[in-house]
Write a structure and sequence with these properties.
Length: 390
């Protein structure tokens, strides 16, 4: 069996890693992989066509600015897929790139196409599902409320859960040792998570830095921890160098992927409160039991267009899955230091207020059930009517 699989950012790489592991579990007589991925997928033996951060582009202005590069990478990827002739093309999230690739591949071949992570049609641009239906055969959904939206326009859609529920939790001794090693014993610790894309990091860190400065005036003992990914590590280091709170930038560049993930989980669990960009990271914080405030902004044109199209009053995944509004969020024009700081102070005073929503989210995403990576792999095999040899 041959599989071409594409991920373009850290959250997609995590899903791709679990998918590869799941397929290898279910097809023990061999799967040949090709594609684009990050450290996790490369650690599973994938030889990435090019570094995945080269296609991690978000927002209308970024797409316009990097259109020529994006177009070349799309062409290169399509030609590689057609040359490889896989049984299935699995594209993971990143619709700006992946759906263009899938559309071109489908126009020139009969290769089965699977898109992993349903588009957020429940939030904005509901017609996206109908637009992708002619060239996407199957959608794998991370959330239980998504399949009906895809099925309504004729695509097969399987809810497969989220790999975040399978990750081991940091232990109390691990958290204690981490705090001792970093000189953080007995101090309030704020986790700052500005995202993994260069564009969002450059936009959010100035705002987050102002928030840190305001919080420090109320609590001079507060320390700041900024876990990040190698692709934006230097950008983050330069941005936080003058911050108050003696920020610690955590980048596990010299370790294997499993060690990086373990250190990240320990850091998340060690924090008292997190200030995070909108995205999958809210699920990782929920898994760690760390209360959070979510804030996100974008370029003015994207803010204007998306603001008019938004169909829901929250974009935070913990809020959506738990069907609560337990996590405060500040999106677009609301992403201002005074509002964010007030919310962080409230969460710090009452961290238990988010406990139910975080636990309920994990249960609804499959905690205690079959590994989502195996579920995703099985859904792909079922969609192909593929029967592994006994």
């Amino acid at each position: 069996m041959k599989v071409f699989i594409i991920a373009g950012e850290s959250s997609g790489d995590k899903l791709g890693t679990a998918m590869i592991q799941g397929l290898r579990t279910l097809v023990p007589n061999g799967v040949e992989f090709a594609g684009i991925g990050g450290a996790g997928m490369v650690g599973q033996g994938l030889s990435s066509l090019f570094p995945m951060d080269q296609i991690s582009i978000m927002g209308i202005e970024q797409i316009i600015k990097q259109y020529s590069t994006l177009k070349r990478r799309i062409h290169q990827t399509v030609e590689s897929i057609l040359e490889f002739q896989p049984d299935v093309l699995i594209t993971i999230d990143l619709p700006e790139f992946n759906l263009r690739v899938a559309q071109q591949v489908k126009a020139r071949s009969a290769i089965c196409t699977v898109h992993y992570v349903a588009p957020t049609v429940w939030a904005w641009r509901p017609k996206r599902a109908a637009k992708m239906a002619p060239f996407i055969d199957q959608v794998l959904a991370l959330f239980p409320f998504e399949p009906p939206f895809m099925q309504a326009v004729g695509m097969r859609c399987d809810f497969v859960g989220h790999p975040v529920v399978t990750e081991p939790k940091a232990t109390v001794p691990q958290v204690g040792e981490f705090r001792r090693a970093q000189g953080l014993e007995g101090v309030p610790l704020l986790l700052v998570l500005p995202g993994s894309r260069r564009s969002e990091v450059s936009r959010l860190l100035p705002v987050f830095g102002q928030c840190v400065a305001r919080l420090i005036t109320h609590n001079p003992n507060m320390r700041v921890l900024v876990p990040t990914v190698p692709a934006v590590a230097e950008q983050v280091r330069q941005a936080v160098a003058q911050w108050a709170g003696e920020p610690i930038v955590q980048v596990a560049e010299d370790h294997n992927h499993a060690t990086q993930l373990a250190e990240k989980r320990i850091a998340f669990a060690a924090a008292d409160v997190a200030l995070a960009a909108s995205g999958t990271v809210s699920l990782e914080l929920a898994a760690a039991g760390t209360p959070m405030v979510v804030a996100y902004d974008m370029a003015w044109l994207s803010r204007l267009i998306i603001g008019r199209m938004l169909r829901t009053d929250t974009v935070t995944l913990v809020n959506l899955v738990s069907e609560t509004r337990a996590v405060p969020e500040f999106i677009g024009a609301a992403c201002t230091p005074p509002a964010i700081v007030a919310a962080i102070q409230e969460v710090w005073a009452r961290p238990e207020a988010q406990a139910f929503a975080m636990q309920d989210t994990m249960l609804k995403l499959g905690l205690g059930g079959k590994d989502p990576g195996v579920r995703a792999a099985q859904a792909v095999l079922d969609g192909l009517n593929f029967k592994p040899a006994a």
